[in-house]
Amino acid sequence: MAAAEFDVPELKDDIEVPKIREGSMAHAKSFLAPKPVQDFMGYPHELSEDWKERAIDKMGDLLGKYRSLKVFLDACVHCGACTDKCHYYLGTSDPKNMPVARQDLMRQVYRRYFTTPGKLFPKLVGAKDLTKETLDDWYSYYHQCSECRRCSVFCPYGIDTAEITMAGREILNHVGMGQKYSNEILGKVQKIGNNLGLPGPALEDTLEGLEEDIEADTGVPVKLPIDVQGAEVLLVTPSADFFSEPHVESLIGYAKVFHAAGISWTLSSHASEAGNFGLFNGNYETMRKVAMRIRDAALELGVKRIVVGECGHAWRVAYSFWNTLTGIGYGGNDPFSIELQKQLDPNYPQPQHICELTNDLIKQGKIAVDPSANDDLVVTYHDSCNVARASRMGDEPGGQFAIPRELIQSVANNFHNMAEETIYESTFCCGGGGGLLTDDLMEVRVKGAMPRMTALNNVVKEHQVNFMATICAICKAQFTKVLPKYGFDMSMVGGVHQLVSKAIKLD
Amino acid sequence: MTIIYAGMFYIATLLLVAGLVYKIFDYSRTPAPLKIPTTPAPTTQKGVIYRMAKEVVLFESLFKSNKWIWVFGWLFHFGLLLVLLRHLRYFTQPVWFWVDILQPFGKYASIMMVIGLGGLLARRFLVDRVRYISTPSDYLMLVLLLAIGLSGMMMTFVTHTDIIALKGFFLGLMYLDIQPLPQDPALLVHLALVALLMVIFPISKLLHAPGLFFSPTRNQADNPRERRHVAAWAARLDQGN
């Protein structure tokens, strides 16, 4: 299935709601996970004869475990409020990319097998038997959802398609239709310690090289330590930060911040990765296993604080789930987290986002910055979906919007927001999140980026914006690929700490 | 006919109450293993109550998403509420004073309700995206509610029914002392449709009413760093460590 030719959407002044074009994206399918990948995850790699029973059983299992799934499948009234909210629908016109229709792919099967009217009068309530065609639709369209949760903001009942997508993918995995990209990554993170499969020695080499670069650049011996016993801070960051552009510029920024503030810190070769693709597949145990590596590294290294680098879904998992999954947080008085509480410093949020840390340091005057170092840039900020709609920073609701902006404005003089209805909790996804950042889904990614590109294009025209800062590794990787398709320079995107890195004063 | 309708209302009430109690019990028993509030979300339980109240009373999220659906949806629901409150006078003796005060409002609220329903129905035909997602039951439910509204309005504004006898019938039902039901076509249609609505309520999308209160994206406080949030089935995984 080579990536087919496709048209890049033309940018208009406004984001227009298209007329539906049925089936226009049915062909978009990512590669299926092969046997070794599925074996490692404990899933079959092809449909068995009893796949239908397995799928229905799994659905029943999930319905019993997740209130979200049960309530969301029941509560939808097909009001249509979400139909024009998904960036994939806006970019592709395929009606099955409307959140309600994406959910209905599962809801119609749920109705048929789990509800009385669906068993008695399937046609009347839109219930359908589970067939191979349905399963193929699930595979197509549950991999055209970045689980960005924009629909959940606008739904009168808070129905969150991400929860349905996760359940859909878990059922697909369970019958042998796993996605190669995500499941391969889940293997690497568990076997090697990070999503990219960088072994410890390679990581050390990279970090040494970066230290030399920084010293050559600034004359200051800024360190990037790894596996240091007894450091105060354990930094966990997406592995893209170790070698991808522009990600690595942010890593350099974090190192400079720790250096300038005099905070001892370390990375861990066993748990260098913050990203947790377990989230995307809706498997609690996988997500827990991947998160547990961080807890183990923290205990092993004896750190007092855990800080998370610039990554969207990683921050969601860290902020919202680590405490529950691993006891990293203020925990409770259960034996499971007490061990960790003895070690972690209660004076800091656990875990803490790197933007919270840096912003606090600047506000307290513990590090000095010169915003004029970024005077060549006119900056805008892309709220990454998982940070914006599924997590928080600081003490107040909405801190996840305020803190990164505060930070940017203290290190750069020229800043303009994109249009109100495309940022904050209404932010448009980059188009590559949720396990879609694979070349086999390039058409979905490019078309799904259209709403964000439209908003960006408008601030470029009105305010001469030439830099879009963001705090998600997937956003950065996606935009560097997609910006050129829309006629922008790929160097227009970068991390918030890339700006910090330029402006920070080192001694 | 009186016996048929009496039986029908007993059965419908039983199904409505039993069905709803079962569903609510089922929702509350199903664990929510992770904190998934859609942010920015309140960080305290009080804040959650305030957020929920805004959703229930003002349809806040819907207001953000689509003004047409909001206008029609709100007209329908608020109209229905007033109409239902007005109907309390058929079930209470003596009638509570505030139900008395509400009577004229409830009477004209039926117009709001019917306009709202009409608008929602029109959207199903006119907007291609909404037409695509509509199932026959989506149309039928609007038609059912419209028919209930219109048959009720008939009795209020066109041909009055014997309201004293009707009240006698319902009070009788409540005290297990069956009284004759007025044999008025508009009333018979109205009551039959209401009974039908009661029956389908717990097995249909009308579950959005209780569902909203159980929606984790809306009813959870955003405090996961401060509190562990472990479901029973997930806690069992901890014992392995």
UniProtKB/TrEMBL annotation, chain A:
UniProt cross-references to Gene3D superfamilies, sorted A to Z: Alpha-helical ferredoxin
Q: Which UniProt keywords apply?
A: 4Fe-4S, Electron transport, Iron, Iron-sulfur, Metal-binding, Transport
Question: What InterPro entries is this protein classified in?
Answer: 4Fe4S_Fe-S-bd, 4Fe4S_Fe_S_CS, Cys_rich_dom, Helical_ferredxn
| PROSITE patterns found in the cross-reference section | 4FE4S_FER_1 (PS00198), 4FE4S_FER_2 (PS51379)
Which SUPFAM superfamilies does the record cross-reference, listed alphabetically?
alpha-helical ferredoxin
Q: Which molecular-function annotations from GO does this UniProt entry contain?
A: 4 iron, 4 sulfur cluster binding; metal ion binding; oxidoreductase activity
> What sequence ranges are listed for the domain 4Fe-4S ferredoxin-type?
67-96
Which PANTHER family has this protein been placed in? FUMARATE REDUCTASE IRON-SULFUR SUBUNIT, HETERODISULFIDE REDUCTASE
Name recorded for this polypeptide: Reductase, iron-sulfur binding subunit, putative
Q: Which organism is it from?
A: Thiobacillus denitrificans (strain ATCC 25259 / T1)
What lineage does UniProt assign to this protein's organism? Answer: Bacteria, Pseudomonadati, Pseudomonadota, Betaproteobacteria, Nitrosomonadales
